[in-house]
Amino acid sequence: MASSLMSLKLACVVVLCLAVLGAPLAQGAINCGEVTSKLAPCIPYLKGPGGGAVPPACCSGIKTLNGEAQTAPDRQAACNCLKSAAATITGINLNLASGLPGKCGVSIPYQISPSTDCKRFQCL
């Protein structure tokens, strides 16, 4: 159960970077279980001291989630899952989380933060 909570917060911190472009009040096809499972391999990296290599399974999950969250409803759903998860996992290094998308070759137009307003971002 603690692992599930950690995975959920990871989703909150990491996927925020990937899925914050959602439209307000839209219900996405992506669910929190999917977000959590895809980003779970990132948790040890985000709780570590930093400076190490990002686990390949973490980058794979980030890239997969980013590819799946292409619609506004999906991006908002993923963002909200990440925000919920962020409140449950202790010890996440937000500086590492902020740099994680770039280290995995994913470009995002916003700051990764638990305070990100998922409703504020619209698809271009």
From TrEMBL:
Keywords: Disulfide bond, Lipid-binding, Signal, Transport. InterPro entries: Bifun_inhib/LTP/seed_sf, Bifunc_inhib/LTP/seed_store, Plant_nsLTP. It comes from the Eukaryota. GO terms for molecular function: lipid binding. SUPFAM superfamilies: Bifunctional inhibitor/lipid-transfer protein/seed storage 2S albumin (SSF47699). Gene3D superfamilies: Plant lipid-transfer and hydrophobic proteins. GO terms for biological process: lipid transport. The keyword Disulfide bond applies. Residues 1-28 form the signal peptide. Belongs to the plant LTP family. PANTHER family: NON-SPECIFIC LIPID-TRANSFER PROTEIN 2-RELATED (PTHR33076). This is Non-specific lipid-transfer protein.
